[in-house]
């Protein structure tokens, strides 16, 4: 989105690197109650918005089958990849396995699943959380002495202690400002006032001039204004009355995190022959690449391509490696691989 002032609607900018140049892409609002998604019974007792990991997986599977098998059967033969980032690391592998193991209804063709992609994925608390302080040490954010003291005095599983250690750092991108005012969880921004029974936003209430243009969270605020504009909603085909106000983060959504680890899904999918791409940014301390590397190693796959650089316009963009189940390395069965990319 382009910069804006208090009087104009944010403008979209053309992105020449868009994935839509290579594939047809569906961006799905999930779980129900996020984005422009809604439940028909949510206005009665709220049951439609009581969701969680396994419910979200079931809803996504239902959507994909209806979209591809009933509404767009002409797209069924296209290779299908499921993708997501962050907390989608718990959902995407389960969705992919659901497609891989489900039997289609009689006279219904199967979805042409080929693999999945995940960026900085939440995977397992036992790997993700303990990697934060070693990451901070490796990036030079804490001294050797503090790191050694931490290992001696703090439990490596104690999330409270770790949060205290990094509270002044923007975990999602350690080189960017920690922008409290522009936080997507800012209640002053997320709770619009109501006028005549309709939720509305006033640009002057957001004090955009107070939010530094250096903060990526500025765009979070801009997206809120953009998505609630009547012209935008009409262009997107949003049915009137379904979602009174679009929120980037619906903090009131009852959600049960009932998938504790997605490692078993990765193991199952890769041994079944499906491809996967796991990519991590080197400045993300929320889900550090150290933890991602650790759970990938726990799969005990054979490394078939050692760490080596990848290039963009002749410059090193990062490094990558590829691993495969041992049986796939030795036997000429369906080739599968799990690829780790570090950026």
Automatic annotation (TrEMBL):
GO terms for molecular function: acyltransferase activity, transferring groups other than amino-acyl groups; serine-type carboxypeptidase activity. InterPro entries: AB_hydrolase_fold (IPR029058), Peptidase_S10 (IPR001563). It holds the Pfam family Peptidase_S10. It comes from the Eukaryota. One of its GO terms (biological process) is secondary metabolic process. Gene3D superfamilies: alpha/beta hydrolase. Belongs to the peptidase S10 family. This is Serine carboxypeptidase-like 19. It comes from Oryza barthii.
């Amino acid at each position: 989105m382009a910069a804006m002032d208090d009087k104009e609607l944010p403008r979209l900018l053309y992105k020449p690197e868009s994935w839509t140049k290579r594939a047809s892409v569906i961006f799905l609002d999930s779980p129900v109650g996020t984005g422009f998604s809604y439940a028909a019974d949510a206005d009665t007792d709220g049951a439609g918005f009581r969701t969680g990991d396994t419910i979200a997986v079931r809803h996504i599977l239902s959507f994909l089958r209806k979209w591809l098998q009933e509404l767009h059967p002409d797209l069924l033969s296209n290779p299908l990849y499921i993708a997501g980032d962050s907390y989608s690391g718990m959902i995407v592998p389960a969705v992919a396995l659901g497609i891989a193991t489900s039997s289609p209804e009689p006279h219904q063709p199967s979805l042409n699943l080929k693999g999945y992609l995940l960026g900085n994925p939440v995977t397992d608390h036992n790997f993700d959380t303990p990697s934060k302080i070693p990451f901070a040490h490796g990036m030079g954010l804490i001294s050797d002495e503090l790191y050694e003291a931490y290992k001696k005095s703090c439990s490596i599983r104690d999330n409270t202690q770790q949060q205290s250690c990094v509270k002044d750092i923007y975990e999602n991108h350690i080189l960017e400002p920690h922008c409290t005012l522009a936080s997507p969880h800012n209640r002053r921004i997320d709770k619009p006032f109501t006028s005549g029974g309709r939720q509305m936003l006033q640009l002057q209430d957001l004090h955009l001039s107070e939010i530094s243009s250096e903060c990526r969270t500025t765009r979070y605020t801009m997206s809120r204004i953009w998505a609630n504009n009547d012209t935008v909603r009409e262009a997107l085909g949003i049915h009137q009355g379904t979602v009174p106000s679009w929120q980037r983060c619906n903090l009131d959504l009852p959600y049960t995190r009932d998938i504790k680890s997605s490692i078993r899904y990765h193991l199952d999918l890769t041994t079944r022959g499906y491809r996967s791409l796991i990519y991590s940014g080197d400045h993300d301390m929320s889900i550090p690449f150290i933890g991602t590397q650790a759970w990938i190693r726990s799969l005990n796959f054979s490394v078939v391509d050692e760490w080596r650089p990848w290039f963009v316009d002749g410059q090193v963009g990062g490094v990558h490696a590829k691993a495969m189940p041992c049986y796939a390395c030795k036997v000429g069965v369906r080739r599968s691989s799990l690829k780790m990319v570090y950026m």
